Structures are given as structure tokens and as C-alpha cells.
Amino acid sequence: MSDLNTRRQFLSRFSFAAVIGFAAFCLGVASFGQSAKALVEIDITQGQIEPMPVALPSFAADGGDPKLAEEMTGVIAADLKRSGLFRPLDPASFIQGNMSVNTTPRFGDWRTIGAQALLSGSVVKQSDGRLRAEFRLWDVFASEQMLGQQFYTTADNWRRLAHIIADAVYERLTGEKGYFDTRIVFIDETGPKNARVKRLAIMDQDGANVRYLTQGQNLVLTPRFSPKSQEITYMSYEGTDPSVFLLNIETGQREIVGNFPGMTFAPRFSPDGQQVIMSLQQGANANLFTMDLRSRRTTRLTNSTAIDTSPSFSPDGQRVVFESDRGGTQQLYVMNADGSNAQRISFGPGRYSTPVWSPRGDLIAFTKQHQGRFMIGVMSPEGKGERVLTEGYHNEGPAWSPNGRVLLFFRDTPGENGGPQVWTVDLTGYNEQRVVTPAFASDPSWSPLID
Amino acid sequence: MLNLANYGRVLRAAITGALVMLVAACAQTQPDGLQGNGVAPGTGQDFVVNVGDRVFFDEDQSTLNAAAQSTLSKQAAWLGRYSKYTITVEGHADERGTRQYNIALGARRAQSARDYLVSQGVPASRIKTISYGKERPVAVCNDSSCWTQNRRAVTVLNNATQ
Predict the structure, then answer these.
(1) A-contacting residues of B 33-62, CB under 8 Å?
(2) pLDDT at position A41
(3) What is the CATH number of domain A183-446?
(4) Which string of DSSP letters, residue by residue, matches A381-434?
(5) What's the mean per-residue pLDDT of chain A?
(6) Is the CATH number of domain A2-174 3.40.50.10070?
(7) Which of A49, A298, A420, B68 is positioned for an S-S bond with B55, CB 3.0–4.6 A?
(8) Which residues in chain B are closer than 8 Å to A310, comparing Cβ atoms?
């Protein structure tokens, strides 16, 4: 590997209990010299996008485990395809075979089959048992390398490694952070509709590696990821009143959030992860409170004879969007983080609920009910530019991808045997995809990317 | 099998599978109340069958209609007679709302029923409330015949033997 650039770059993203120790190195340019301008880039600010054709030949195993190499390549291809921005080409069309990280592409062969970008790579199990994966991303039109990286990790992390490579490709080709090396926390639902068992569960964003964090003894709802730590806040029916809990998913440590005189629900973290904002039920009314997780101090934000719930901070922590029926029906309001100056922002026909502030800050996603239909939509924090992204019998509970490009939500199906399933839709309203789960699933929430 | 005209009767029947035939039969001939229908007075079964353990609400509402007030008045009288019971009033919503709002709406309905029971002389110290939002439907079809049954407040005897 004479072309290895020694500049080290640590990926310290979202470390997870058994998933640690990724080190990434940049691979230098193979033979064509680094050029300043790549020809192949996607402008993802447009509406419907023609997906970029990409060639993803199976990584070479270099005498190692070809099945693993093929499966890793498959995970990368599936990530890129699901994004809706890329169209992996049929490997049967490939002219040049036996690609590895050290193969010089015959660019004409790749142009012939219509590829705009080409990913070549190798994954090798070293004598110490660790995997070494290397890849190069090629601009087929410009005949040059766009990106080259090398990673080391333990063998059981191979899926995660594939997601990290897919993120690198996504970021290089779109100019935006990827979201493939992330997880989704959700509620697993089993049993008949009138006796549902609900479990807190977590999976990779592509639906793999499902783990159950509770066992179904207690009804659990609305889990939300901390933006800064391996913690989840959720509502659980246990103790005197149903309450908001905090769970550390690495240690399993669990605690009740605050000591409130009544039911607490609809929790969400502040952007710095130091506060939980939630509703407290007081008689017929629900009001918003925060609890500081360090000082344990609780602060009342609203004091209305209404249902104030589903609060969500702006990414700068300065404002809070929430739903309230103080004006008669559920509508969205934005107030300052100290509870002052609440202003209604939703004015269209119907009822608006479950607002979530985009991690980019420029949009608020919501559920909207109108004439018996349930929609997922977005509008600006000032209430302008409302757009419906999906609508149907029942769509509910949007949650943003960490890069603000994709929304998770759940879609319920009617009737005795119906139940919720988790879906994604692009901010553009295109590319609806179901996230396959072992059973019915609701209340999805995306983990952050931490770097 | 459910129709709107008799859903109240059928609902009572839905309380427990074992009671279905009994209740349906009684409901044909007996008004609510402490009747000689073979149910031991003062039991949980008596409360469910002869008094009625639940009241229903209009869509997105928590106000008590005349039927609900009548049922709650009977509950209060019964609870006055059998003072050993403490109760939990469970508030519920139908599935045609969002989860967090429905939790609060269920709480509002439970509170509404609780307040009425207190106004009828049931000591507040005997009453606890809880909301299940849309999480515990009793009827699972996807039309209004089911949704009307799910928009409810149910009075549960905490220490009933039967």
C-alpha cells in the first residue's frame, strides 16, 4: 500500500456498547492525481431527483471471506439505493471484473454501462482477527479518484463498517452528511389490537440488528434519542402514575425523570442533551415543563387550561415548538425556551400535532388531520410554506434523520388485524420506503450522528 | 355484529367473555339497577352488570352527556352503599388521533368522570385516575361503531373480589 496517506482521521461517531474502535485512514490518489473539481455530484436541493447510476462491484476478499465481502457490498448498495439518490447498476452489466481497491478502473468500460461513480474496495480479515476494509470512490467521467479510505474494526462490526463506507460515499457525492451509520429506537408491537404488548426496541437504520430494551411487562411509548449520549427518554406505565423515564442503552441504567405530582408524557431532549422537556398532566390540563438532568431542577414553561404537549426544541435551544388546543383544536405554537411569547404558526384547515424541529432549523415537521385523513407535512418555523409529504388513512409521528433530509414516521393500517409500520419519506415528498421490522412498529426516533 | 342502536348493551357484554350471554339476556328484560339477576349484590360483577362501569364521549370531547351523567350517578350511589371500594377511573380515546394528545384527552375524560363522581358524594380520596390514550381499545374495527365504544371512561373497582 505505497499509496496510503498517513493522515489519520478518527471516526468517533455514535459509539455503541459492542461497537467501538473504528479507525479510518485516507487512501491517497492511486494514479491520476487529485483534481480540484469532480464532475459527479448530486444537487439534492431539487424536488424529484433522477437517481445517480453507480457501479458497486463486490469488494475483493483478497483470499479472505468472499461471502463477507459480497454482503458488505450489498449493505452499501442497499443504503445508497434506499436514499433514493443513487441507482446501483446490475452487476451483470459490468464489463471489468475482479475489482479490488488496487485495481485501476478501465473508465471506458464503466462509462459504457452508464455508471457515473464507481466504488471499488477490498475487505480482508487480518491475522489478529480484525477486518481491514479499504475503498476508493471513482468519478467515472473525470477518470479520477474522488475519495479513498481505510478502516479497521472487529469482524462482528462488518455491517456498521458498510454503513460508514456508504456514509462516506453519500457525503462525497451529495455534499451532505450521511445517515446510514445510525440507529432507530421504536416501539415493537405484538399481540391482538385490544391487548397489544409494546416493547422498547432499537435497530440499525436499515432494520438490521433489532434488540429489545424492555420485555413488554409495562406499556411503553414515545422513545426519543438523546442528541449527545447513549440515552433514550420514553414514557412507561409503571409506578403510581405513568411517567417519563431515562434509559442508558449502554449500561441499562434507568431512572424516572423528575418527581412530578401526576402523569408525565411526551418527552424529548434539549439539543445539548442536558434537559428533558415534557408534558405534566394536571387535572384536565397538560402543561409543559423542563427538567435539567444535572441540577434536577424542574421549570414550568406553560400554564394554560389546555392540552399543551409534543414539545420540541429548535436546534439552537432558543425556542420550542409544541401543540396546544388552547384555541379550540390542536394547533402548532412556537415560544421562547423560557415559555414566553407563544405564537400560533399553523393556520391551514385541520388539526396539527406532533411538531418536530428539523436538525437544520429551517423546518418543522408535523402530523395533520383533516377530513379523516392523516398527513405528514413540513412548514417553516414561522408557519410559512406548508407542504404535505405523505397522506392516507393514518400517518403519524414524524422524526428527522440527523442530516434533516429524511423523515421517519409510522403508518397505521385499519381494522382488527391492522397495525403500525415504520416508513421513511424524503423531505421532497418522494421515495417512500418501509423499514422492515419483525412485528408491528410505531413511534420511531432516529439516533444522532456524532462526530 | 355490533350496531349503534344497542352498543351500550353489547359493551357491557364485552367486559368479560363469560358474561356475554348473561348480560345480553338480562339487558333484554331488565333496566340497570340492583335486580334479581343472579349476580351477588356488592360484587364487581354487580357493579359492571347492574350499574354500568363506563361512560362514552363524543369525538374529541370530554363533556358528559345525559346518559353518562345517569350512569355516573348510579355509580356514585352504588359506591356510597359499598364503601369498601376504592376506584380507578380510566380515560380512553379512539385511534383517530395522535398518541400524545390522546393521552391527555383520555386524562381529561377520566377527570371529567371523576369530578362528577365527587359531585355526587364519592370522596375524592377513594378515586384515582389514569389515562391510556388510544392504547387500550375494546373494539377493533375501523369505523365509528368501534370508535364510539373506545372513547370512554371506565370505573374500575380496585379491590373487587369478583
Answers:
(1) 60, 62
(2) 66
(3) 2.120.10.30
(4) TTS-S-EEEEEES-EEEEEE-TTSSEEEEEEE--STT--EEEEEEETTS---EE
(5) 90
(6) yes
(7) B68
(8) 98, 100-101
